Amino acid sequence: MSNADEFTVYGGLSEVTDDHRWAFGTGFTDPLEGIDSSVPAGVDGAALARYSLMLGDDALVYSQRLQQWMTRAPELEEETAIANIALDLLGQARLLLSRAGQADGTGREEDSYAFFRDEAEFLNVRLVETVDADFAELVGRLLLFASWRLALFDRLSGSKDPVLAAIAAKAVKELTYHRDYAAQWVIRLGDGTDVSQRKMQAALCVVWPFIDELFTPHPAEASLPGVAVNVGTLRAEVDDVLHTVCATAGLDRPQRTGLTRVAGRSGRDGVHTEAFGYLLAEMQSVARAHPDATW
Amino acid sequence: MSTEFTAEGGHGAVPTSAAVPATSDVVVRSDWPLFEVFLRGKRGLNHVHVGSLHAADAQMALHHARDLYTRRNEGVSIWVVPAIQITASSPDEKDPFFAPSGDKVYRHPTFYDIPDDVPHM
Fold this sequence. Notes:
The complex is a heterodimer.
Chain A: H1 3-7, H2 45-67, H3 76-103, H4 110-115, H5 135-156, H6 162-190, H7 194-207, H8 211-214, H9 219-222, H10 235-249, H11 274-289
Chain B: E1 5-7, E2 14-15, E3 34-40, E4 48-54, H1 58-69, E5 77-82, H2 94-98
Antiparallel strand pairs in B: 1-2, 3-4, 3-5
């Protein structure tokens, strides 16, 4: 550190690199740097693409839902926290949709999957597409999602596909924070006043029916041994987390039956709830109005 | 508003009383206290004041600080301090506090000849 730096206190917050794009904070890393993006031998490319879309759509759709909280959050500080979480998920979605384009051999880019697929082609679980009625539902839903996805990505970081493994390894750190953030609020509200306790309990009753779908194994996973994670094996681990949080918060875990499947199909098969169409219309309308626009 | 602001803080002022009273006809949505945030960067030797935020308690303040002030890779360590715990010098006493040092040039070690081969001076 030079003498001049000692007196420019903010100098200590930035790293010296050749990257001058940012005022503060440099040294950003590419999670896929040096990783071979070809489909590993013996892995079905079409199945890998479908699996990447399943995980990518969960993040993309939930990110869009969280972004709808912007300008509506109860506190400025919470709004930034929600925006950070939405951006983390958007980053995961971009990497996973890009992986789908590499794996299915079409070479399509992330935007092509995000903006030019129709409702029935989205493979996300239905937990992420429904609207939060209040802040308690937001943190309740986030607790379920982040706990489940963290358990899933923790296993996925050992995947035979090096790209999925690298994406998962990066995401685990993000999801750990998301879960921590949600758990902190569920406990704070559950263990708070009578009103906050009642609202938090009601919120858990709303989001709980979506849990079963998270742990229902899908044929796409079975067709990718060593690459995909069988979600059926994650239930005990996630239940443990939810039990701990609910017990600490003084909340009951609702005994609700799962959301019904339609002719045996659910979100992973492209069957979605009514709310999803509106979300998709908002997300896709600009890109569809100006298909080849750049900015 | 009767609260006195005597010190300079992250958002311009640190209230000297425990909480800033709101005007009576406004519904008080939040009376979360103010915290001042200090960050240490990867390369930095000391924590640097970067701003302030509202939080219900110290743990939430740490979360908020992480979300508000480390989004661009700035920090590796965060301190949060309740703003009311900071005792600050008062602008009214600026002259007796600081002006006397202005003309004491002999307090600066500038009257020595320093040999060329002495580094870091």
